[in-house]
Amino acid sequence: MNLNTMSAVMTFVSKIENDSASFYDKTVKKYPEFEETFQAWIRENAKFEKQVKQTYFGVITDTLESNFSFGGLDSGNYDLDLVLPENAGLSEGKKKAFEIEETIKRFYLEAARLSDGLMADIPRLFRKIAKKREDRILSVSSF
Amino acid sequence: MPVTRLQNYVNGEWVDATAGRYNEIINPAHGTLLCEAPVSSQADMDLAIHAAEEAFQDWRNTPPVARARYLHRLIALMEENFNELSITQTLEHGKTIDESRGETRRGIEMLEVASGIPSLMQGFNLEDIAHGIDEVAFYQPMGVFGCIAPFNFPLMIPLWFLPFAIACGNTFVVKSSPRTPMSQAAFFKLLDEVGLPPGVASLVNGETKAANALLDHHGMQGVTFVGSTPVAKEIYKKCGENGIRVIAQGGAKNFIVLMPDAEIDQVMVSLLSSFYGNAGQRCLSGANLLVVGDDKTYNRFLDKFVEAARNIKVGDGLDESVQMGPLQNEASKERVSGMIENAISEGAKLKLDGRRLNLVGDLPEACFLNPTVLESVQPDMTCAMEEIFGPVACVLRAKDLEETIDIIHCNPYGNAASIFTNTGKWARQFRHEVVVGNVGINVGIVAPMSFFPFGGRKDSFFGVVHGQGRDVIRFFTEPKIVIERWF
Questions:
Q1: What is the structure's pLDDT at A105?
Q2: Closest Cβ–Cβ partner in A61, A68, A69 for B102
């Protein structure tokens, strides 16, 4: 689905943050040794979603091009595979988390690039969240 | 299920209008009935104005800082109800949900600025204008003001005025648009929760009769209006005859100038938003696209613009994939379609025909048009001179900036004009010379923020001071000069 408008992008942000949080919520039972990390990420996802919404609602007055700024952004390029088989080992879990974070990072960076013409707040926040995702990718690699 | 009937809000109460006639309010995207709005009578308006007169003395004696606190509470309520307010606008007007949210935010910003009234309303003074004599200027509220609201920004435009008026200590009556009255009804529900003293702010739904009652009432101190130029002129005249203040913002025919060095790929989003945002139904919309340069430059610009306009997704504004909603009603669509036909008969060429509908979803076609681009438009054609107020771009050409400015000056309107260029000299010359109230440089929609006045010249504005910002504080107050000496 094409994410033409800011509104559609915001809805998609909610989806990926909630979906990935729900992945970690399920995964934490499988790998209790990472409980602290995953619980922190779940909280962080909720914070990211809130920050994006607050920024969007805060600057929508100035982003007069909000209906046209995300041409080419397609949610199909950022589908998250959230299914972890029952008997998955740690390496599979790591791989899945890596892919999820990598996909979300890619989304935020592309959305930031496309929205650079909007008020600076939105692409700046997207890049900040992408950086946090990069940190998570490094964490996953070190598990 | 019974249809909801809107009520007036008068003297702090929701009341039925005395008139028996109601207008059906239709969702333009789906053709469904949303509610019915009363066509209030002169008596209904008189009641609201009488309540406002009664409320004035106590309200003006309420300290400005206390008046501002009501606005703070109202801001908080609007934030809590941000999405509901925005959805209401989309339902009754048709604009996209992003556009409605932008409108809600703009409305809130007006309250934010107005809540600074303890600073904004301050006068000035000078000691010893003569030996032992001091002079002070106070800005005092005047009494009852009112607003005649348009359909295209049903929530925001009354908020260009109401928060400032009441923050200054005046009382205020809104006559909402008969086409889009729901947004003001939703706003006044929040205002009712804030607990303003009865009569400080009232809402009357209605048409011309209610508007005339507002203009002619002897208790009024001033009226604001936003709408078409013929009506703005009439209101300006009437207010002059009645000796009351007026801000009358009329129509527009805004030029968007593309210089040969414009970064076409970067400006395309601004152009689309300018010409087709709000389906072209805003007084700051781009209307005439004036391309400066040779054939090669012109063809490069135009081909890209037409292609981008063709790809705009049109449909129900609540669908997040949609980039442009319907016209607000069937009559608007008929009028715009007629102007396209007339342009063709005058010699314009149809580069993109928005009458050939391509909608997202299965929707009734009654109010929809897709984006239209008219080429070979001459400055004196009707389509270049008159406000279309729909998703139509008229493309003109000029050989240089001097000719461009001449063409703009031949147009009777003077609301806004924008130039897209990378050359500072051209931008500076344009800004300096062009006779419009709002100038954009690489900006497609020149919407002044709440702390700046909303400009407008020529047939786009009738009055002295403008809406918003410091101008409107002056509109809603009268200076009182005190010269004092003590023996």
A1: 98
A2: A61
Looking at the structure, do residues B465 and B426 belong to the same domain, yes or no?
no
What is residue B459's DSSP assignment? Answer: T
pLDDT of amino acid B387: 97
Instruction: Read off the pLDDT band of B28 (50, 70, 90).
Output: very high
Same domain, B245 and B259: no
Q: How does pLDDT run across A77-112, given as a tens digit for each residue?
A: 999 999 888 888 888 888 999 999 999 999 999 999
Residue A1's pLDDT band, with cuts at 50, 70 and 90, is confident
What residue in B sits closest to A54 (Cα-Cα)? B79
Question: What is the token pair recorded at B273?
Answer: 């938003």
CATH of the domain at B160: 3.40.605.10
Q: Per the domain annotation, does B3 fall within a domain? A: no
Please tell me the total count of domains within chain B. 2
Nearest chain A residue to B448 by CA distance is A62
Q: Which domains does chain A have, with CATH numbers?
A: 6-142 (1.20.1260)
Mutation choice for A interface testing from B264, B320, B322 by most A CBs within 10 A: B320
Instruction: Tell me: pLDDT of A137 over 90.
Output: yes
Chosen for mutation from A61, A63, A69 (greatest number of chain B CBs closer than 10 Å) is A61
Note whether B59 and B200 are same-domain residues.
yes
B458 contacts chain A (CB < 8 A)? no
Which secondary structure element, helix H or strand E, spans residue B69, and what is its range? Answer: helix B64-80
Q: pLDDT at residue B342 above 90?
A: yes
Our separate counts of H helices and E strands in chain B read 17, 24
Cβ neighbors of B408 (< 8 A, separation 6 or more) are B255, B257, B290, B417, B434, B435, B436
Q: Do A66 and B98 touch (CB under 8 A)?
A: yes
Residue range(s) defining the domain that contains residue B354: 254-441
What is the structure's pLDDT at A62?
63
Asked if residue B321 is part of any domain, the answer here is yes
Contact B10, B210 (CB under 8 A): no
Mean pLDDT of B428-441: 98
B269–A contact, CB cutoff 8 A: yes
- Tokens standing for B196? 């303003």
* Predicted complex ipTM: 0.88
Same domain, B271 and B246: no
**What is the dihedral sign for C-alpha B294, B296, B297, B302?**
positive
B395 DSSP β-pair partners: B289
| Cα–Cα distance measured from residue B100 to residue B84, given in angstroms and rounded to the nearest whole number | 10
Q: Where residue B367 sits, what CATH number does that domain have?
A: 3.40.309.10
pLDDT (tens digit, 9 = 90+) per residue, B299-317? 999 999 999 999 999 999 9
Query: What whole-number distance in Å separates Cα of residue B192 and Cα of residue B202?
Result: 10
Residue B173 forms part of a structural domain:
yes
Percent of chain B with pLDDT over 90: 98
| pLDDT level of residue B213 (50, 70, 90 thresholds) | very high
3-state class of B458 per DSSP? strand
